[in-house]
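Quick start: read one record
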Amino acid sequence: MKNPSVAIIIINWNSFKYTDDCLVSLEELDYDSFEIVIVDNASTDNSLAKLKSKYSCLHYIENKDNLGFTGGNNEGILYALNRGFEYLLLLNNDTIVCPDFLSILIDTIKQDTTIAAVQPKIFYNYDRSILWNAGGRYIPAISHTVVDGDGKRDSEKFSKQKEVDWITGCAFLVRTSVVKEVGMLNDLFFYGCYDDVEWSLRMRGAGYRLMFCPNSIIYHDVAVASKNELEGSEGFLKPYFHYLVNRNHWILIRLNSKHLFFVTSVLFQLVKFLAFVTYFTVRNRRRKLKAAVHGFIHGITKPLVAKSLNHKHYIQLYR
């Protein structure tokens, strides 16, 4: 019997080494029915040309602008939908996969049509005995996300298949039929903060389940695009990341929280924001403080339409 078809969507943005390492690991997959789609977000470091030279058989989508995680992946998702793939996999380029990770995910998701999406067990790549993500939980009363296992060593506790509230965009295998029903990623979020949570909640709201598959294993170099190579006066994380964290959490609250939970979520977010402000003030991280305040204000005031946010401007402002 022929395996279901899978489009593996990988975004490249000025990061040939990570994308190359990921592709090398994908060459060892024991699965035989997939196509790799490289979405380049307007790289300026010649990484796209180098990838094309080494991997000429892949499908490439070249964006004229940096469309972020959401816009970049949506271009790949649209390609997968138009080509009739049964499943699509969002996969971060800073991951290394085990040969059987995809076949295990497919075996799990195809068992039950109520399962919309599945994720693997994800370890830190710098120490492959330390977990990064063993499933996500969502606390609706305060719109708070929890990652099971982060920073802990693997154990029996994290070795059982389970239903989860949300799946990380780092490795998100989903039925294309479900994407057609609930829509693609929300471009309001742009990059890497709560976009995967919102997508997961949409799927659950449509009556589907999400699963964590502990026997499917990958390794992750975490937050590569969010960090500077050297620690400066503002730390490793770029100020733009704090702009997004504060802004996108408000967007998630506005999109999903209702009635009493909206009130409690707002109160929780205010406390969280004051903690950010206090920390950045004490550490004299002025650019991060400005970015966090800017994100806070935009998250509350901007219309919930993607065109209301000039991402290119804020990337330059808080890079």
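The radius of gyration is 19 Å.
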